[in-house]
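[scheduler] slot 2 assigned
[scheduler] job type: sequence-to-structure, two independent chains
[scheduler] chain ordering preserved from manifest
[runner] begin chain α
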Amino acid sequence: MQDFIIIGHKAVTTGGFSLNDMPGSAGRMDILCRCINSVFFLSHDLRRDVQAHLLLLGEPNPPRVIRFNGEKLRYLNPDERSAGALIKKALEIDDISSIETRSTPGVWIREADLSTLLSEFSSDGRKIFYLREDGEDIRSISEGLKDGVFILGDHLGLTEDEEKLVLGMSAGTISVGPLSLHADHCIILIHNELDRVAFGQIQR
């Protein structure tokens, strides 16, 4: 299982946003929707052995974590509005607490912050990798990528406090290339590296 944590610093935490204005009124929810599509979609199929955790930090009720599980996921189509509709439905649930609540098949929501997510993965013995352009080349890493947890920021990156927290609990920073890329593009490149290893095109 691969897990991706995507942090949306401005992403709203209410279901009242418009699917017609996700870059604006929804706090760049469009970035998170593109990341969801990159995490799960193959040509004519979905990746089943992967999860995405959207950490929403915008107003009015942060923090919220929406978890997408590929094995159980339904009703997701390869467009931003489809992912946005599933996020919107999750945020419309009343009385969100620290206990996960299912909104639609394969999608759950709860109240949780970055520290909680990292602690949960760390306690399970999972290796956590922080994506940054100045990190270690992903192709030079020999262990831990399979079943790894990958952390990506939105258009704002990570704050200084978030970086300090992540670096204190991660296996380090990794890079998929020398240039700064969009988070959804980084996810596709990570998948490509792992696919090539899985199918024997790269030996590690």
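[runner] end chain α
[runner] begin chain β
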Amino acid sequence: MRRLLLALALLACAAPLRAQAPANPGVLNVYNWADYIDPAALERFTRETGIRVRYDVYDTLETLEGKLSAGRSGYDIVVPTSEPSFNRLLRAGALRPLDMARIPNARHLDPALMAEVAKLDTGNRHGVIYLWGTVGLAVVPERIRALWPDAPLDSLELVLNPENLRRIARCGVVVMDSAVDVLPTVLRHLGRDPLSGDAADLAEAQRRLLAIRPHLRAIPSPPAIIEQLAAGEVCAALAYSGDTIQAGARAREAGRPFTVQYLPPREGAQLSFDMLAIPADAPNPEAAHAFINFVLQPEVMAGITRQVRYPNAVPASRALLPAELREDPSIFPPPEVIARSFLAGTPPQAAERARARLWARFKAGR
């Protein structure tokens, strides 16, 4: 973690290399989260390489994993979260080793951040970090304070304590539909191992989730939460950091009479790294390598962070951002926030099955 703290302060200064087009450009098929790219980057990539981009989106990691596990997805680039999705796909042999000779711009990547991912992908052979962020609290302070002036806005107690949640339920509270992100946070909040597959630990997590379920307005997909927060339909959510910041920007642009803020939980936020990877059966791996190399240019990554409000793993890009983004602690967490953060890891398969059953019961409310 000390290495991670140092990495966040580094600024690389090497000049970027332009994307190299493969001999037969064709079409690049990308499968990524919604609202997770700079459209201008896609247009520039096509201009520079002649490669047309077909861009599809998913709304949960489970959807991504299901598509790749079935095989013959038709995609050349996918963006799984390092743990557990990237790790599970790696173990299943669903990802193609990268030809790093075709990705010279990988030299811009933060070595300490890449070392974190190398713990599960030896030698970083199958993926590079695209963007990263934390799981925490999305809040509309004005609406929450109107119901509960002393609400602990920066504590998981706000949404995971049923008595507290009941006090603010009228203004709308949601938890994102992502077991791989929510369960580790709940377990950590309960003082248990976020990686735990122990029956007693999971039973305690299930009790807590079922206790808050009656007070939740919904369990929507992460992209849906962006719209709900921006429109003022909800006042609190357990959500991704960048999604919350996007929602706040949309609310300001629309002239909404409220603010949307992201607060990392004082108890510690879950860190996640989203990876650029190539499926094992990708139809156009040459174009995929060209795309990864293109994206890792500092000015391209700066444009993506500017658009989606998530930090990236190319330190030299930070100097290219406007000061209000570069110095925003909700985008680039300060050292003390990182020090309290945790990586969830990938549970054993038996634990994953138990967690899937737990999550289904939570969504059903029984």
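[runner] end chain β
[qc] chain β: Residues 105 and 293 are 5 Å apart (CA to CA).
[scheduler] slot 2 released
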